[in-house]
Amino acid sequence: MSETILQVEDLKAYYFTPNGVVKAVDGVSFSVERGRCLAIVGESGCGKSTLVSSILGLLTPPGRIVDGKIIFEGQDLLTKSQVEIRQIRGRKIGMVFQDPMTFLNPLMTSGFQVAETLIEHLNMPLAEAMGKSVGLLTDVQVPDPNRVSRSYPHELSGGMRQRVLIAISLSCNPTLLIADEPTSALDVTIQSQILDLITSFKEKYKMAIIFITHELAIVPRIADEVAVMYAGKIVETGPVAEVMQNPLHPYTQALKNSYARARKQILPSIKGSVPNLANPPPGCRFHPRCPYVFKPCTTLEPGPSTPHPDRTVYCHLYGSEDVKL
Amino acid sequence: MSQVGEKLLELIDVKKYYPVRGGFLLRTVGHVRAVDGVALQIRRGETLAIVGESGCGKSTLAQIIAGLIKPTSGKIIFNGVEIKDNMLHDISLRHKIQMVFQNPESSLNPRMTVRDVLAEAIKAKYGNTIDEDALNEKILNLVNSVGLTPQHLTRYPHQLSGGEKQRVSIARALATEPELIILDEPVSALDLSMRAQILNLLLELQQRHYLTYIYITHNLEQAWHLSDRVAVMYLGKIVELAPTETFFHKPLHPYSMVLLSSAPLLEASFEVQKIKPVGEPPSPLNPPKGCRFHPRCPFAFDRCRETEPRMLEVEEGHWVACYLAEESSKLHNVQPLVK
Amino acid sequence: MVHETKYAEAWLRFRSDLGAVAGLVILTALVVMSVLGPIIVPEDPVKTNLNRALEPPGISGLLGRDELGRDILSRIVHGAPVSLGIGIFSVMIGASVGVVLGLISGYFGDKTDTVIQRVADVLLSFPSILLALSLVAALGVGLVNVVIAVGVSTIPVYIKLVRGQVLAIKNEDFVKAARLLGLNSAQVMLKHIMPNVLPVIVVQSTYYIGFTILVASGLGFLGLGVQPPTPEWGAMLGGGRTYIFSAPHILIFPGIMIFVTILAFNMVGDGLRAALDPKAPIVVKSLRRKRHE
């Protein structure tokens, strides 16, 4: 039984800077179901950080959400007040970010930081919260949870800090977990452990997960569905196995091609670089770099096409039902 | 495919220890054993990948080979000549070994244009009195060979993308016509679409100039893609050394198996025994007694906890420092050769 | 947007800071005053006229006369090059010694570093004016000695500042790359480290010129700096001390000059700091106008 936990509809978030309007997120739509993990894959400059900030209500001026809906458990977050959002964020929506060192308070012990969330959101008394905190640290497979609970962030390794961050994010049993590049700064063996940990929580608590990454290779290990983001727009979505096996959008194909198939292979590479979001190319934003570019690409933005059930791609190669101007 | 030739570089028991000072009088209380007895031979034209996670000493080793860090002990022999301390002042030797660094942001002097960077490198090789026309010609050649245009010459680093900055770093490394280039995670900081371009460039340049590469990385996909041989480092020591195909199909050291199990390889066509990594890497200040990997090794037995295994050649070109591998090779009647 | 040179970009950033521009205008006016003023101004600043002592502004001379009947306007104008000169030369002395020591200390580290840093620490433990005072006590009063004393008192800050920058820069990859090219220590320091330290030195020096003028004025006020009859704003303050209630104009005008001068240097320093930071955004004002259309 799949219940949609988060549905984002045509979200637009722009930055209004003195040098122009940066359309960081420009009409993004996707959904995540209970117990499923959606990976959002994109390189730097694609707008994924802005997307995360928008969903969490953390977007600050000059950034502003201009249009769209963020429907969480049936309610549009954009219609809620800051107070209401604060009650949801941290409690019903957990967050894990890339660099635990900047997100943990260096002056508080790890155990206390986990407990803090429980105290804030659930009004738990301190002693009980500290007890539960050690329990959570055990759940995230921290060795010697009591010692870690008493330790300060700088006394812990990168992998341990990330586990502490995950413990904090899970403390109030959220229905949605947003993980923004949580393993990018970690060694590959620790990364593997953390990915397994997140997957085990998905299965145990049936959480919905949004996993943001720039490393396409991780996606099959963690996600059920994948959405590929480029220059502020989603260009392709679908089940992971299918998209990895048979990528439809030329950009997804290019990402896949950046991994070598044979030793000493000269990789098929795409020319150019990510566009400036203050002045994106007209029509399809990928067209200056696309090997298959043809007439409509330079002037018309492609709308969604569904060449297979469950798969959506925004590309003129697949013809589109509604073409946006 | 580059032809692999004679021995270019040899490292014999290279060590680098950093003293740790503690206490009131700041006496030396211990040592961080960043590199703890590394032996390697690198042949001309080959690409050797050195893989390992953070803290294994690969970056320190890279800098020792480049001559940026003086080893605590051990020998480095380049082109048959032993590099002694005072020889690092021999500029022609310096020029033969160059390096490309990981972080494009700190690789270029923010106050120098691309042209300044390349001119400096060329003048370092050919002298300050080089003819202006000759200098310009060489600069243009370098720019072209790394896929940049003359328009890039007047730009400052902050006006270049990450990929462009790395291209400039590569051009600078090529300017002194080196024989060996050490690449320390050259594409880790770049986006996926940029990586392919730079990796292609590196392959091309190697062919064209018959370069020898030492490719340092924690990314096994890149090691597989680019290298002829793979050396795995753990806590300052090399634990396995093998030709690439052999390494990926038949890794012998448990740590190698752990690495391969953890690497999110896309075209996962390697039938590797999946080993779950246990615990965290220990600190290089206090490595465990015996085999350094034993606390995390699922196969550890008594001998592993007592003494450190030596590197043995269990089959041709395939070296491992592991008692388990030693035992299994005996079972297959292969005579290990001791180095 | 790709600008032609770093200097063009720096200027744009500087220009967008109104305070910095105002400061620059004031400093330009001061320089003009220093150069042209002594030629234009009618009276001899040194000539005393006891009959007309303490005359308030208006009656004769724009700014009145001091306790010895000298024309205050002339003294202010002639004092400008004195103060500016002290500021610039003392900073030059301090910077040339301090920067070199800071470079050596930071680059070579180890014992050299320890020795230089301890010396700097000892000097820093004195408040600047006290340090300058002790040097004046040793050297004697007068313009040249003031410049030396105040200059030396700025050395420790330069050492610390430059050393910090060098430490931050010397482990950057581009410095390693320079060493790989075979450049020796001196070449690396001059070609790679210095240019990146320079912005910090420029900004600090700008603030410091204002500061040294203040210290010199303080010495002048105490009678231990520039000696009369040479006009110096601080000395003018000192001389007029006892007339604070009866003839405040003697104090007000030199006081204002000191205040405005130092303020101007500080504002220009702030502007330079933002201008020389390549990461600071450039606000291009022309776009603002466009969006209102």
From TrEMBL, chain A:
User: GO terms for molecular function, please?
Assistant: ATP binding; ATP hydrolysis activity
Question: What keywords does the record list, in alphabetical order?
Answer: ATP-binding, Cell inner membrane, Cell membrane, Membrane, Nucleotide-binding, Translocase, Transport
What are its GO biological-process terms? peptide transport
Which compartments does it reside in?
Cell membrane
The segment(s) forming the ABC transporter domain are 6-256
- UniProt KW RNA-binding keyword: no
Please tell me whether the keyword ATP-binding is annotated for this protein. yes
List the record's Gene Ontology CC terms alphabetically.
Answer: plasma membrane
Membrane protein topology class? Peripheral membrane protein
Descriptive protein name: ABC transporter ATP-binding protein
Automatic annotation (TrEMBL), chain B:
* InterPro entries referenced in this protein's UniProt entry, alphabetically: AAA+_ATPase, ABC_transp_ATP-bind, ABC_transporter-like_ATP-bd, ABC_transporter-like_CS, Oligopep_ABC_C, P-loop_NTPase
BP GO terms, sorted: peptide transport; transmembrane transport
Q: Residues in domain ABC transporter?
A: 9-260
- Kindly indicate whether the keyword Phosphoprotein belongs to this entry: no
Instruction: Give one Pfam hit by family name.
Output: oligo_HPY
For this protein, what is any one GO molecular function term?
ATP binding
Q: Does the keyword Nucleotide-binding apply?
A: yes
Q: Which domain of life is it from?
A: Archaea
Keywords on record: ATP-binding, Nucleotide-binding, Transport
**Matching NCBIfam families:** oligo_HPY (TIGR01727)
What family does the Swiss-Prot or TrEMBL record give for this protein? Answer: Belongs to the ABC transporter superfamily.
Protein name listed in UniProt:
ATP-binding cassette domain-containing protein
